[in-house]
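[Meeting: bench + compute handoff]

Bench side (C.D.) handed over the final construct sequence. Compute side (W.E.) agreed to return the predicted structure before the next meeting so the bench team could plan truncations. Sequence as handed over:
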Amino acid sequence: MTAQNVPPTKPASELQIGDWVDQQVTCANQCNAEIVAVYPFVTDDARARVLITYVRAGKRVPEVAGFYAEDPVRVLTAEEIAGIREQGERSKRIAEIRQLADWLERHPEAPMPYMISASEHLSREAFGDGTEVERLAKVRDLAASLGIKTDEHLEDRTRLIVDFGNARYELVAWHPAGRPNQPEATPDPEPPLASGRELSAADEATPTGKREPLHTGGVVDGGRLVDETPCYVPCGFHAPEVIAEEIALCAASHPGRECTQPVSEPSA
């Protein structure tokens, strides 16, 4: 494990309010918890100890854990803390959507909305939405993973829409100056030859022997194979000297058999 991959730790005596810890001593299954209070003290045997009060992620009831001052405690990085808070906010929103459905079910006297829409707009880099290119890629990537098409008929926005009857989820990437160009996908390179070299002109297949007409049949005469393939010499737009050469080649390949130019080529 490299130094960059070693989880950050600090002695329990350096823990502060607001630190997030990931410690099996704190709670089962190494759950994440935020420290809300720190109480250093010294035991009767003169050993320094630390008592912390923490709240588990997604919970409200505080709990207590104790450490010796020198005990290493795994603390979470800023990125990990941001991810926990984002997931917590997401879980909270989902719970609120369920509360709305439960409330409508408990109050049949309340008129039912014809359309319920949940939308998220990615519009500004300052809000953590990324650049226009990143926002567009986020919408398109999600659409591709879901197997649906984006709505791109307006140049200032790209929309992903998922309908559940009269309920809709919508993700919108805004680009007021027009849809930015996405970099074209780079095709995969051709695999190298087994020999490790490129093909050259000398590698191209070039016929070197004399031409032989295609043999399509034969019969057996007393154990001897006799070629009875009809021998045709193509006509058409060939010059007379070419036709004469074809007839000569055919006659040389089939001694004792007459080779002539047909009136027209046989049909396949």
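W.E. noted at the follow-up: Residues 79-112 form one domain. C.D. will use this when planning the next construct.
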